[in-house]
Specification:
The chain is mostly helical. It has eight helices and two strands, in the order E-E-H-H-H-H-H-H-H-H. A two-stranded antiparallel sheet has the order 1-2. Helix 1 packs antiparallel against helix 6, helix 3 packs antiparallel against helix 5 and helix 7 runs antiparallel to helix 8. It is extended, with a radius of gyration of 23 Å.
C-alpha cells in the first residue's frame, strides 16, 4: 500500500491546513483485465478488425493498424503486459526518478573513466551518453505521468 500526504478535515468537520499520512489503494483494474484475458478475447472476437472493416477509424484502418494490433494482443496476454503496466503504475515515482538520476550519474562516471584519446572511445562515450540520456528522460517522464495517475 502506498502512502501520501493528504489534507484532512477534523472530527467536527473543520478544515485544518496540515498534512497527515493517507493510504493510496493499489490500482488493480489492469491486473483484473489481465486475469480475465480480455486482450485475447478482443482478438478472438475480431472487434478491431470489425471496426476497421466498418470504416470507423479512417487513417488507422488504411494502414491496417487494428488488425496488426489484434494479432499482438494474445502475445501481450501471455507475457502479462497489463500486470506489468499495473505494477509500473503502482511504483512510487520517486523510485523512477532515482533510477533516472542513477543513469545520469553513471554516465558522468563513464565520461570521467573512459579516456577520449581515440575516435572509437569518443563514439562510445557519445553512444552511451545518448542511451543514458534517453533512458533518464523516459524514466523522468514516466515518473511524472505515474504521479498524475496516482493523484500526487
Amino acid at each position: 500500500m502506498l502512502e501520501k500526504k493528504v489534507l484532512k478535515l477534523d472530527a467536527s468537520g473543520e478544515f485544518q491546513a496540515r498534512e497527515v499520512s493517507g493510504n493510496v489503494g493499489r490500482i488493480s483494474l489492469l491486473k483484473r483485465i489481465d486475469e480475465l484475458k480480455v486482450l485475447s478475447k478482443v482478438a478472438d472476437a475480431g472487434l478491431l478488425s470489425g471496426a476497421e472493416s466498418a470504416g470507423l477509424f479512417s487513417t488507422l484502418e488504411q494502414k491496417k493498424a487494428f488488425s496488426t494490433i489484434e494479432k499482438i494482443l494474445p502475445a501481450a496476454d501471455k507475457v502479462g503486459a497489463l500486470t506489468l503496466a499495473e505494477e509500473l503504475v503502482n511504483t512510487p515515482p520517486t523510485f523512477l526518478l532515482l533510477g533516472a538520476a542513477g543513469l545520469v550519474a553513471g554516465e558522468v562516471a563513464i565520461l570521467g573513466a573512459v579516456p577520449d584519446d581515440s575516435v572509437a572511445l569518443v563514439a562510445l562515450q557519445g553512444g552511451l551518453g545518448l542511451v543514458a540520456g534517453i533512458g533518464a528522460a523516459t524514466l523522468a517522464v514516466t515518473a511524472f505521468l505515474i504521479s498524475v495517475v496516482q493523484g500526487e
